[in-house]
Structure formats: C-alpha cells, structure tokens
Amino acid sequence: MSVTTPQTRAQRTESGLLSTRPVWLVGILATLAGAVVTEAFALVARAAGVPMEAASPGATEAAEIPVGGFFGGVVFWSVAGIVLAVVLARWAEQPARAFTVTTVALTALSLAGPAVAPHTATSTQIVLAVSHVVAAAVVVPLLARRLSHVRR
Questions:
Q1: What is the rounded distance in angstroms from the CA atom of residue 56 to the CA atom of residue 119?
Q2: Which one, of 3, 129, 136, 116, lies nearest residue 55 by Cα?
Q3: Neighbouring residues of 127: CB distance < 8 A, sequence distance ≥ 6
Q4: pLDDT band at 8 (very low <50, low <70, confident <90, very high)
C-alpha cells in the first residue's frame, strides 16, 4: 500500500492539470482566459471615459473599437501563439524557454502599434498598449508552464 503525502498530492495535481492536456487545449483555455481578462480591462477603461477610437497607419481618421474588439483581437493573435507552442513542443530542445523568449519579444514589438497609431488619443494608445501586456501576462505563462512539462 502506497502512502500519499500532501507533497505528492500537490505534485500530482500541479502536473496533472497541465502536463496531461494537449498543448493546443491548454492554448485554447489560456486564450479564452486572456481574452476575457483583456476585454474586462478594456470595459473598465471605457467606463472610465477613455475614448475607444483608434486609427490604423495610413487611415485619415480613427474608427470606434467595438465592445468585444479586445476579446476578438486576443483570440486572433493567440491562434498564432498556439501554433508556435505546438511547433515548439514538437521540435524545440527547450520549448518553454523558446516560447517565452519569442512571445515576450513579440509582445514588446507589438507595443509599437499603439504608440504610432495616428488620430488616436494618448489615453487610448496607453490602454491599447497595456491591453497587449495584459493578454500576454495571462496567455504566455499558462502555455509556457504546459511546455515546461514536455519531455524529450
């Protein structure tokens, strides 16, 4: 008869939640969590009076960012992150490290978009930039943690 200690139960629970699920499934769950948190952040900013209008480079005027727009943006870009995670899980020597380094660099690069958005209020540019960080702060650690359980 084996004895289960609190430590072995905790180890089994921690690794069981992440390491037994497919990378793509953890990615989908992380994406949904990140999208909800980011949309909630945007709704708070909207309620605080931040104008939710932004323009793309080359546009002559700003367009309204609809409710749900942040959610959709996180889902759209996270699909690329999930594909990256699946590829790294398959072929990278250290998939968690490669994923984290790549996604942190891409998140930093993504901050340039809001910074140069023409016809966009500074407060909106700040909310857009922070929303990139919020989404990454939810999605990246969850996927990186799953990738840390990949064994070669």
A1: 9
A2: 116
A3: 41, 42, 45, 50, 52
A4: very low
